[in-house]
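Lay summary. Proteins are chains of building blocks that fold into shapes, and those shapes determine what they do. In this project we predict the shape from the chain. Here is one chain we studied, written as its sequence of building blocks.
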Amino acid sequence: MKSLHLSVRAVLLLAGALASSGCFQMTTVLKVNGDGSGTINHRMVYTKAALAQLKSFAAFGGGRGGGADPLSEQQARDMTASIGPGVSYVSSELVTTPAGQGRDAIYAFTDVSTLRISTQPAAPGGVAIKTQGFSTQPSASESITFTMTHEANGNAMLHIHVPEPNYLDFFGSPQAAGQIGMIKTMLAGARVLLAAEPSGTLVRTSSPFVDGPRVTLLDIDLDAVLADETLLPRIQAVAANAADAKAVLLSAKGLKINLDPEITIEFTPAK
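And here is the predicted shape, written in a compact code that computers can read:
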């Protein structure tokens, strides 16, 4: 019973740490060359309240060495292994924004097909919790993966394999209505942006979200999504039909997401 109590307490602490008011804003931009090499620019920004809670959780015993600093350069270095083999840490620097404090980090990779880009923020300070139905370590099935092929004309084709999101499972569940208020409070200000930028001339892409050379894979502004109080009842009204539910979700303000299992980007590599 004691071990069960501790595991539940740990899960609640982590939930509080990662879901404090206005807890985080994460931006990940993949820059890929025609030969499959490239860099990843990753920014994670936390509010002051979130930083205090993260440090408290690490001190509780979940982090290596206790009291690990989620803004330290070591944390940025430690993230390298989780991105994939052949990835190396290049540099990082502390940043301060109106949302809070964080770190910009740059990683280099030699083969885009080895990458595993998570759609959720990594647990800080070496935190590692795994219980039934919960883990701080995302599985491979929850990460975006990539392959690259080349056309006869020399163009490169980046194939982005996207895991099926569980948003519809949540919005369509009977429990969703009772949880929306809590989510609005705990995740106020949260934003996640994932994008790809080919090095060269963009020829075409299956994604509708294009801004110059940047192709947005996922952009969630949670405040904007949840501000529409009609979204949940509209999804639940058609929850039995997956296609209709997806159409309602895709119309939500503050949400840019392509629900296709594969997104393609064709580009002419830079000389």
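What the prediction tells us: The chain has a mean pLDDT of 79.
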